[in-house]
Design brief:
It is globular, with a radius of gyration of 19 Å. By secondary structure, it is mostly helical. The longest helix has 28 residues. It has two domains: 79 residues, no CATH class; 106 residues, no CATH class. Helix 3 runs antiparallel to helix 4 and helix 4 runs antiparallel to helix 6. The chain contains ten helices and no strands.
């Protein structure tokens, strides 16, 4: 059986950002309800393309897609935009809760997601997990503040042009931890030799 292919970084970014761009455009021209329907459709298409190309679906986009469909469906069925606005809060709180539960039970779930990109010491993974828990809580809090205090169009703008830059900035801010606690190939080989001895 062939191993899953790895998506090129730019294609991966396009598949992750594409549905959000569709949501922003559809909302701008047609309003929140058509925008929500377009967002749901684009999310499913992006997930399907990701699987067709890589023969696998990353966990976080899959979970996000499930919530987009559930809360988008509730938004359309009940004609209440509150549900699609609540979705980012609930998703971010859920990610924070999963990481926290893993941290207290000795299961570093973030390692499962990111270890293909880089190798860290146990201390590095713990620090990274704590940082992402805090960041997910921050995003949840920001979403609550924004959607409850501004217009729907402003919230959509925040979702499209605020969340991604914040996430990129936070990811860059994690580089010192990644560099400090990174395991070089030679270190990994030495550790493997010690384990075998």
């Amino acid at each position: 059986m062939a191993a899953p292919a790895k998506l090129p970084p730019m294609l991966k970014l396009a598949l992750e950002m594409g549905p959000l761009a569709v949501f922003f455009g559809a909302n701008a021209y047609f309003g929140i309800f058509p925008g929500t329907a377009a967002f749901m459709a684009a999310t499913i298409v992006a997930l399907g393309l990701s699987y067709a190309i890589a023969r696998t679906v990353p966990v976080m986009p899959l979970v996000t897609a499930v919530f987009v469909v559930i809360f988008g469906g509730l938004t359309l069925y009940l004609a209440d935009e509150t549900f699609i606005k609540l979705k980012p809060t609930i998703v971010n709180l859920m990610f924070a809760a999963i990481l926290f539960a893993g941290l207290v039970t000795g299961r570093l779930f973030i390692k499962l997601v990111l270890e293909a990109a880089f190798q860290l010491t146990e201390r590095g993974w713990i620090l990274l997990t704590r940082a992402w828990i805090g960041f997910f809580l921050l995003l949840a809090g920001l979403n609550e503040i924004v959607w409850r205090n501004v217009s729907t169009d402003t919230w959509v703008n925040f979702k499209a042009f605020g969340i991604m830059p914040l996430t990129l900035l936070f990811s860059f801010a994690m580089l010192p931890i990644i560099l400090r606690y990174s395991i070089q190939p030679a270190d990994a080989d030495a550790k493997s030799d010690v384990d075998k001895a």
